[in-house]
Amino acid sequence: MNHWIIAPVILPALLAPLIILLMRNDLLLQRVFSIAGTVALTLISFALLWAATVNPPEVYFPGDWPAPFGIVLVLDRLSALMVALTAVLGLAVVLYAIGTGWDARGRHFHALFQFQLMGICGAFLTGDAFNLFVFFEVLLIASYGLMVHGGGRERTRAGVQYIAFNLLGSSLLLIALASIYAITGTLNMADLAVKVAALPEGDAALMRVAAVMLILVFAIKGALVPLQFWLPGTYANAPGPVAALFSVMTKIGAYAIIRIGTLVFPPDTPATGTLIADLLLGSALITLILGAVGVLGATTLARMVAYAGIASMGTLFLAIAAFTPQATAAALYYMIHSTLATAAMFLVADLVLSRRQDDSLRHSLPPIAQSGLIASLFFATAIAMAGMPPLSGFLGKLLVLDALRDQAAIVWSVILVTSLITIIGFARGGSVLFWKSHASDEVVETAPEPDPLAFTMVIALIGALGAMTVFAGPLMGWLEVAAAELHDPAAYIAANRLPGSE
What we know:
mainly alpha, about 0% strand, 2 strands, two-stranded antiparallel sheet
């Protein structure tokens, strides 16, 4: 048994209360321990990623209770990848927050940040559907505090909306899990894969209802139409580094659908058939269209970035909806890209906002300090988000298009047209921010304190997107193996050592 599997959950779970109890009045000490903990989490996640690469799926049994009676944590390529992605993004965000002083604008930022990492990592590692709900609640409670960090009426109002939508999702998830448990007598995902496949015909209708409720829950987390309304206001009003961290939270919805849709409810399951794929396809198309139109029509920079995030989720879910190994591998590549690109875009937006009177895109404002460097960063992140060469967004969309070549022509048309709309939207926003401002006779606004650490983190995220392009071949080879394992979950099920499986 690999005891390191539980480390991404235990490490931030222990560090967060220590920060609250022993360091709450010492910001410097909080920063030191938060950075050290996140660096340790990153190193552990890379070690787990290597273990998942060279070994078959591994299961950790807390308390040595066997599945399905005990709650299990499962390490495979997908869970290891998502934990590593979370750790890398978390390290960039915490360093950015320290570099800009965001962590000093409210109490308990670093404790909430560690609790957030605990919940996200736990959600990716758990092999139990009820524990998925538990980790959802942990990360959501932490995100509520981070959302309103720094205060303000608009931020508080957006936080209330965010809480309301997620409480709805939590309630639906509980109802869905209760229904599934009533039918199968288990919530262990490997055990569910076995029992749902052999479900009597009389229970199929109720199982389909439960599956639809699960999809609705994950659609809320992933900002899929018609349940995406919470995201623009929430992300646009959240502190910049918090919004950047939230870019991986929407991927939890995508991760859950990949996991459930390939393990418990694959398209060849008699009880649900292609129900999940059919629901996702139409919703993803509308989500992509809505996101692109939102980018074009956004009146503020923060909302433009938020709508770009919605559009990227639409593209991601189009690939997921195909439920083929090729499409899943493309989805995983695009998931990594969109997480890093969206986070970088939110950080660039925060750099702009810290140097302007407001973030309106309706009128020009005086030029900002360091406009050349920030304009370059905006240009690079806009290229990544829109899917233009030479960054990984271009390759990601090509992979998705190639994987969907057997779909209806409307899928290709929507992806290509919305990409053009997104490019136009970012070009419009960039011209207002960095070109029209120079036509103003007003003086350049005073720059805040220099924050080279913040700029370094944005550049590092953009560099990671460039590395994804350079090493796309080896990365896709690794992801194709991960996708093949997802669509042939025999090893995942065997790792749980279920009764009667040996």
